[in-house]
């Protein structure tokens, strides 16, 4: 703990990163749900498609 960066800034950065991680995960779950709903399990989820 060198004290170079204040603890509050570190905490805010980690909170931002965690929030973005959760947000991206939720978006991917929504995309998977919509793909399964429209294409089914085999074509919707188990087919790799770069988007």
TrEMBL record:
Keywords: Membrane, Transmembrane, Transmembrane helix. The chain crosses the membrane at residues 6-30. This is Uncharacterized protein. It comes from Nitrococcus mobilis Nb-231.
């Amino acid at each position: 703990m060198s004290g170079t960066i204040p603890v509050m800034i570190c905490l805010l950065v980690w909170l931002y990163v965690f929030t973005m991680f959760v947000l991206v995960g939720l978006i991917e779950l929504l995309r998977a749900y919509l793909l399964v709903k429209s294409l089914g399990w085999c074509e919707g989820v188990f087919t790799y498609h770069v988007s």
